[in-house]
Write a structure and sequence with these properties.
Elements lengths: L1 E2 L14 H7 L6 E4 L2 E4 L5 H21 L2 E5 L3 E3 L10 E5 L6 E2 L2 E3 L4 E5 L5 H14 L4 E6 L4 E8 L2 E4 L7 E3 L7 E3 L1 H4 L6 H10 L1
Parallel strand pairs: 1-3, 5-8, 9-10
Antiparallel strand pairs: 2-3, 4-6, 6-9, 7-8, 10-11, 11-12, 13-14
Helix pairs in contact: 2-5
Length: 205
C-alpha cells in the first residue's frame, strides 16, 4: 500500500520495488520509496515553497557558475537499492558522478540531500531519511524546518553523520558544495532576501 494515500503500511510480501514506484506514482506527484513503502507528499505551505525556491535558485546558480555538477528538485528519484528511491526536496551531484544520471533519475545517492520539513514528513526527515542517507553514503544532509524554525546540517565522517556547528551561530560552510556558505537567517527572514543578491555575497567572500 501507499502510505499517506491509504493510511497503512505494506507487509514484507507487499513491498514495492523501484520499478513499481515509477509505474504507480503520477507525474508531478512528489513521493518517496523507503523500505518498499511509497510515501505520498502533501502540498507545500507557502513558507516551505518560498524556502525551496530560494535554495534551488541560490544553489543552482552557484553550482552552474562554478561548474560543479547538477542540482535536482523534487520528482527526481535516487535509486539506492531495489526498495529505496527517495526524492529529496533538493539534491546535488558532483560533475564526476553525473554519468550515473539517467532519464528517470539516478542510480546511487546524491552528494548532498536537502529536506524541507512538512508536518506530515517530520519523522521521515529527522529520523528515517537521515538513517537512509547516512547508510548509503550521502556526504551532506541538510534539514530545514520552517515549522520548528530549526536547521540541522550533517556531514558524513567515518561512515557516520556528525552534526556541524554553525560559524558565529548562523553561518554554515559546505564541504559538498566547495566554497559555498549559507546564513541560516536568510531562510526565515520575511520577506526573504534576493537569491541573486545573496549569491553575489557568497561569491565575493
Amino acid at each position: 500500500m501507499m502510505k499517506n494515500r491509504f493510511g497503512s503500511t505494506p507487509t514484507a510480501q507487499e513491498r514495492y520495488t523501484v520499478k513499481d514506484f515509477y509505474r504507480l506514482v503520477p507525474d508531478g506527484q512528489k513521493a518517496d520509496l523507503i523500505d518498499g513503502v511509497i510515501y505520498m507528499a502533501s502540498s507545500d505551505s507557502t513558507e516551505s515553497d518560498d524556502i525551496n525556491v530560494f535554495l534551488i535558485c541560490l544553489i543552482k546558480a552557484y553550482v552552474d557558475y562554478k561548474n560543479l555538477g547538477r542540482v535536482s528538485a523534487s520528482r527526481f528519484a535516487y535509486k539506492l537499492d531495489e526498495y529505496n528511491a527517495p526524492e529529496p526536496d533538493i539534491a546535488f551531484v558532483r560533475r564526476e558522478r553525473m554519468d550515473l544520471i539517467h532519464e528517470t533519475g539516478m542510480t546511487g545517492p546524491p552528494d548532498l540531500a536537502i529536506e524541507i520539513v512538512a508536518e506530515e514528513s517530520e519523522a521521515r526527515d529527522y529520523e528515517v531519511k537521515k538513517r537512509l542517507y547516512e547508510a548509503t553514503g550521502v556526504q551532506e544532509y541538510w534539514i530545514i524546518d520552517p515549522l520548528g524554525m530549526n536547521v540541522e546540517f550533517y556531514r558524513l565522517v567515518g561512515g557516520k553523520y556528525e552534526r556541524m556547528p554553525l560559524e558565529d551561530g548562523n553561518i554554515f560552510r559546505s564541504d559538498a558544495l566547495a566554497g559555498f556558505w549559507l546564513d541560516v537567517n536568510w531562510l526565515f527572514a520575511r520577506p526573504m532576501p534576493s537569491a541573486y543578491t545573496m549569491l553575489r555575497e557568497i561569491l565575493e567572500d
